Amino acid sequence: MRKKIIIGNWKMNGRKVMASKLCTTIANEMQSLGNIDVALCPPFTLLEEVRQMIAGSACSLGAQDLDMHDDGAYTGQVSAGMLKDSGCEWVIIGHSERRALFGETSHSVSKKTKQALENDLKPIICVGETEDERKAGQEASVVQGQLQSVIDEIGVGSVKNITIAYEPVWAIGTGLTATPEQAQAMHSFIREQLGSRHHETAKTCRILYGGSMKESNAGNLLGCPDIDGGLIGSASLNAEEFLGICRSA
Ligand code: PEP
Fold first, then answer.
1. Which tens digit of pLDDT belongs to each residue from 39-68?
2. Which of 33, 49, 164, 240 is the most buried (most CB within 10 A)?
3. Distance 192 CA to ligand 1 centre (A)
4. Could you list the residue range(s) of the whole structural domain that residue 19 is in?
5. Å from CA of 73 to ligand 1 middle
6. With 90 as the cut, is the pLDDT of residue 1 above it?
7. Residues with Cβ within 6 A of ligand 1?
8. Selected catalytic residue, list 49, 104, 133, 167
């Protein structure tokens, strides 16, 4: 049985007061959520604030990106070691906004994944097709290619240490959600791909869905056999919505 996990991606949102209110509410409710994992990924500036607010609860901390290098002359960047030192357990890698807006490539996603693993961080690798790619029937090959380069870099033996987030780009922040059937089909395809490399890993690897998940649609998505949790953007900024998703898991 794979334990469900719900991860909040705050993107470039939040100030200390907001973070403190949101995290206090979530931390106070953690015990009532049952046997699921929950993590929050605030912007770098709020990592310490959030770390303090969730300390002592079962909620864990993550970051939204990292640099592919060790510490050094990379002005403006944040290393895996720094994230570890800040109390992070998780790091999101290859979010579609980073791929589309900041030049993230399969090469950099793969290198970052390796760097995260070497520093004992748990990478959440985002994959997903654009609307045009889906219209052209290319969603499977796009996702396969994105996954392939990561597996080639880290080796199939390390796949057990990553979490995958399937996030169709056309569903992120748009209010459009993949239907449970569309999402399940892709999750099952991803699991098959992993299974063709390593049967046991395919059974244990958690594959999350992301793309306008909210309290009202979470139950149907999270009820699919190959959907092991959610990567939540805008709904993670509202404590009641986020907790509602967690309760559906
Ligand atoms: C995301 O950014 O990972 C995401 C899924 O965003 P939203 O939930 O807002 O679509």
1. 999 999 999 999 999 999 999 999 999 999
2. 164
3. 25
4. 5-248
5. 32
6. no
7. 9, 167, 172-173, 210-213, 231-235
8. 167
